[in-house]
């Protein structure tokens, strides 16, 4: 079972080889998928920035991360989706990091009609223990609650200033995930990959919109709502749904 | 997937230092000419036997280091070096094992490690178990990217081993036994090829074999050959791990950063133990000294809690003598410093719960490790 990882990496490749048009080698061109984190529509600054929150308080974000599964491009002709990654962890945790992280992939040249990914760890991977992978793989024990509750799909952590004492000393820690929360995010957007320049698709996620959006504000001042972990996801369901619903795509 | 952390600021300086070091040592021997080279020829076996780490199936696969593949001979050489005080210290009274003693899970029992001059250094000696599973840099601040690079430093650092690499290499080359061991481990032909890099690579090979995976916790949870007491079970299920944290409760939450099976996430956190006015006031800036980023000040790498009952005193500077003190400090919930980890919330425990958490921590002791003959002094 220790060989599962190489196998997983190999599967998508061998999948491509099964294509009918095997005799016509596909021309591959680079495409960049970028992930940008924001807070209230400005690039997210971990630690550095004190952000206003709709309850009248303010907070500093220390961590924002989420898994994406089955990151895929959808060909315009309606053929098989082009798999870019089976699983990836998108994470911001340091004040020196840029708000945008980029990955470049090689895909068949052609026209596409969209991009799709699963927010979280897809059920078939969520069922596999971290011990089946290498210690430095994206799925590892540090993002894993345990036997029953499995991987943490997304984390938002911040320190809030709730009293007028100038101290960011109330920890907010929302750890979310479970098979039933796994959500597919699809963007309909046409673009062409033809080798003339590298098209960039930017997936934007806004931390504020996950906490407070669509007319609802998560009450961070309520001590009952400052931490969510493990099997007790009820309190965070709203955050999860807003997170899954707020992604936008920019193309250039 | 952690971008900024990949390039510690000190890295270029370190590599340059290493390069100059190799250069300096290389130059020294050059003028000898061909006669010296002939005299330096080493004979004996020169084909290292590849070695695969024995990893239990409940552990992840180790992080591989293609620059330093393991061999039986390399590990054996590393083990000899690890324990050899005559090579590594001027007075012949100190080796790696002075501060990394097997019976203490490869720590030294001191709050801050005591150097050759009997003076404490700034930090506590770390346990050396399960290093093969750490993807995030070594030392408390993660400042050493590779395990083999890490060992350059204790030899140079006065407060650890007060010796100079040129002296160490001279002793190794002139030694009656080591040249043949270096040849067996790395296939070299000449004593001149013995250098700091091969020396630290051998040390790292030995260190990678120090795997601790046979504690009571492992026997209960993974091997099903033992049982927790009621108290230990309480400590595990409702206090240490975070699968079942009831909403709105203040919970010890140790599992956030110390999850099984390694019990240390190797990430950098301010776990709230230091009371400072601002993030610029930490005496030991820890990660901040590596990244140059003030928001990383006071952050340290979460170490493993395996064998924690044996490795007192605790924290990077050995500030806590006992595990009770550690728990009390976490219970107090930090000092409101802005970069404290949000999972350090403070909590209150009944006497029974505290006893349960302590009992659980004691299940992480691996008795077999302490006497494993493969890891002991070869002499």
UniProtKB/TrEMBL annotation, chain A:
Q: What does the organism's lineage look like at the top? A: Bacteria, Pseudomonadati, Bacteroidota, Saprospiria, Saprospirales
Protein name, UniProt field:
Copper-binding protein MbnP-like domain-containing protein
Q: Copper-binding protein MbnP-like domain: which residues? A: 29-216
From TrEMBL, chain B:
**Keyword annotations for this protein?**
Heme, Iron, Metal-binding, Oxidoreductase, Peroxidase, Signal
At which positions is heme c 1 bound?
96, 99-100
Q: Name one GO molecular function term.
A: heme binding
Q: Principal localization?
A: other
Boundaries of each Di-haem cytochrome c peroxidase domain copy?
73-224
Question: Entry's SUPFAM superfamilies?
Answer: Cytochrome c
What remark does the entry make about the cofactor?
Answer: Binds 2 heme groups.
Q: Does the keyword rRNA-binding apply?
A: no
Q: Which residues bind heme c 2?
A: 254, 257-258
Provide the Gene Ontology terms for cellular component: cell envelope
Compartment(s): Cell envelope
- The protein's name: Cytochrome c peroxidase
What is the species of this protein? Neolewinella xylanilytica
């Amino acid at each position: 079972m220790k060989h599962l990882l190489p196998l997983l990496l190999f599967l998508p490749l061998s999948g491509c080889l099964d294509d009918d048009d095997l005799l016509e080698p596909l021309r591959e061109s680079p495409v960049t998928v970028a992930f940008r984190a924001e807070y209230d529509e400005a690039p997210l600054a971990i630690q550095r920035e004190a952000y206003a929150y709709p309850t009248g308080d303010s907070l500093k974000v220390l961590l924002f991360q989420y898994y994406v599964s089955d990151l895929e491009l959808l060909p315009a002709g309606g053929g098989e989706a082009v798999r870019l990654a089976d699983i990836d962890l998108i994470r911001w945790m340091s004040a020196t990091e840029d708000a945008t992280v980029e990955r470049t992939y090689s895909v068949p040249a052609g026209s596409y009609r969209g991009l799709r990914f699963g927010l979280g760890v897809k059920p078939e991977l969520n069922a596999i223990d971290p011990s089946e992978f290498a210690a430095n793989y994206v799925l590892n024990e540090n993002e894993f609650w345990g036997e029953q509750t499995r991987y943490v799909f997304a984390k938002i952590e911040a320190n809030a200033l709730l009293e007028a004492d100038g101290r960011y000393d109330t920890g907010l820690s929302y750890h979310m995930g479970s098979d039933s929360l796994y959500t597919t995010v699809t963007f309909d957007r046409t673009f062409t990959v033809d080798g003339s320049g590298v098209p960039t698709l930017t997936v934007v996620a806004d931390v504020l919109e996950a906490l407070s959006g669509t007319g609802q504000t998560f009450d961070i001042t309520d001590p009952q709502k400052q931490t969510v972990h493990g099997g007790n996801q009820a309190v965070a369901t709203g955050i999860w749904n807003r997170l899954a619903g707020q992604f936008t795509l920019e193309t250039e | 997937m952690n971008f900024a952390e990949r390039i510690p600021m000190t890295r270029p300086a370190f590599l340059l230092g290493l390069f100059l070091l190799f250069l300096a040592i290389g130059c020294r021997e050059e003028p000898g000419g061909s006669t010296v080279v002939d005299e330096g020829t080493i004979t004996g076996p020169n084909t290292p036997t590849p070695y695969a780490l024995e990893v239990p199936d409940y552990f992840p696969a180790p992080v591989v280091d293609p620059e330093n593949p393991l061999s039986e001979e390399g590990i054996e050489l590393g083990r000899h070096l690890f324990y050899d005080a005559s090579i590594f210290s001027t007075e012949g009274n100190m080796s790696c094992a002075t501060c990394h003693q097997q019976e203490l899970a490869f720590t030294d029992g001191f709050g801050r490690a005591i150097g050759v001059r009997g003076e404490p250094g700034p930090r506590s000696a770390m346990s050396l178990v399960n290093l093969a599973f750490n993807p995030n840099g070594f030392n408390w601040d993660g400042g050493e990217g590779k395990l083999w690079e890490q060992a350059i430093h204790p030899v140079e650092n006065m407060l650890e081993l007060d010796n100079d690499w040129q002296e160490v290499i001279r002793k190794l080359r002139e030694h009656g036994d080591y040249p043949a061991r270096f040849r067996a481990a790395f296939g070299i032909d000449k004593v001149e090829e013995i250098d700091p890099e091969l020396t630290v690579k051998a040390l790292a090979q030995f260190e990678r074999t120090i795997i601790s995976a046979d504690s009571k916790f492992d026997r209960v949870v993974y091997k099903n050959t033992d049982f927790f007491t009621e108290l230990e079970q309480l400590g595990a299920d409702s206090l240490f791990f975070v699968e079942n944290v009831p909403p709105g409760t203040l919970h010890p939450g140790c599992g956030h950063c110390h999850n099984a099976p390694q019990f240390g996430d190797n990430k950098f956190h301010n776990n709230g133990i230091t009371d400072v006015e601002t993030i610029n006031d930490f005496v030991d800036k820890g990660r901040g000294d590596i990244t140059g980023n003030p928001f990383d000040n006071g952050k340290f790498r979460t170490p493993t809690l395996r064998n924690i009952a044996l490795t007192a005193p605790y924290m990077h500077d050995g500030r806590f003598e006992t595990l009770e003190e550690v728990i009390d400090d976490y219970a107090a919930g930090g000092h409101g410093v802005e970069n404290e980890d949000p999972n350090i919330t403070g909590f209150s425990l009944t006497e029974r719960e505290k006893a349960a958490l302590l009992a659980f921590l004691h299940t992480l002791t691996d008795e077999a490790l302490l006497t494993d003959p493969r890891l002991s002094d070869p002499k």
